């Protein structure tokens, strides 16, 4: 099953079955154009994995890590499918990073590699937006990774049977392919990541593990459209606009849905 969270025409938050061009809840069918899509899960935290594709490590002149590199994105980073995202002002470079997101289905700790699949609710698409200006000069990457709306996710939560072995991960910028790889190329696979994280950190139902990005990351400018497509899940699409903040002006605000 694939499910989506959305605001129905009355403004109520619903979770319904995704049917491509519509979503169903309570024996009602809603056309996607008539609802506001929300992130398909409401995580307490997003745990991201750095340098989990060898070719991405190479393009950043980094060594392949000996253990998973972990960092957080906080709840303020959430954005949904079709949201228009305002880029942070006064930053020279904000990059897209298409990734597979693992959605956790239950509170868990000390999960073994063998039991990891039991705690997975499903999968989604993630775009780990990265403010390189601050990331380059920070050790903990708070400004670089956790600025508002820097984690678009969606469009759906797809239960595990939808994700094929070797699923492809593709990111397009204005229709042109920039990233194309497979989850077979992950340095640390999903069970290893769950076991490593839960050795020290409890995961809650709805939390997301962003499994890392392939080579080909690149900058976003105002007016760009970025699509992250993962085989078996679907396509996360967002428009981007430049901030209009200048002097005493107030800058555009996009609600965090």
From TrEMBL:
One family name in Pfam for this protein: FAA_hydrolase
GO molecular function, one term: isomerase activity
Residue ranges occupied by any Fumarylacetoacetase-like C-terminal domain in the UniProt entry: 45-239
EC number in record: 1.1.1.-
Origin: domain of life: Archaea
Matching Gene3D superfamilies: Fumarylacetoacetase-like, C-terminal domain
Gene Ontology BP terms: carboxylic acid metabolic process
Keywords: Metal-binding, Oxidoreductase
Enzyme class: oxidoreductase
PANTHER family tied to this protein: ACYLPYRUVASE, ACYLPYRUVASE FAHD1, MITOCHONDRIAL
UniProt protein name: Putative 2-keto-3-deoxyxylonate dehydratase
Species annotation: Halalkalicoccus paucihalophilus
């Amino acid at each position: 099953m694939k499910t989506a969270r959305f605001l129905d025409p009355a403004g109520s938050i619903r979770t319904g079955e995704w049917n491509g061009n519509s979503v169903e809840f309570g024996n009602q069918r809603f056309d996607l154009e008539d609802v506001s899509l929300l992130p398909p899960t409401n995580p307490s935290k997003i745990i991201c994995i750095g340098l989990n594709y060898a070719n991405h490590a190479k393009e950043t002149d980094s060594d392949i890590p000996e253990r998973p590199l972990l960092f957080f994105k906080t709840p303020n980073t959430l954005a949904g499918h079709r949201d228009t995202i305002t880029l942070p002002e006064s930053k020279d470079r904000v990059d897209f990073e298409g990734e597979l997101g693992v959605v956790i289905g239950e509170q868990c700790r000390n999960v073994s590699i063998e039991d990891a699949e039991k705690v997975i609710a499903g999968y989604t698409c993630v775009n780990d937006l990265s403010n390189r200006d601050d990331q380059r000069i920070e050790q903990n990457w708070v400004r670089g990774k956790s600025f508002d709306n820097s984690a678009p996710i969606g469009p759906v939560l797809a239960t595990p049977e939808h994700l094929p072995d070797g699923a492809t991960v593709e990111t397009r910028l204005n229709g042109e392919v920039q990233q194309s790889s497979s989850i077979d190329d992950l340095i640390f696979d999903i069970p290893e990541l769950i076991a490593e994280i839960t050795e020290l950190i409890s995961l809650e139902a709805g939390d997301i593990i962003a499994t890392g990005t392939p080579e080909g990351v690149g900058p976003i400018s105002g007016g760009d459209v970025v699509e992250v497509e993962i085989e078996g899940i679907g396509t996360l699409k967002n428009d981007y606009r430049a901030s209009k903040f200048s002097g005493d002006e107030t800058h555009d605000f996009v609600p965090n849905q």
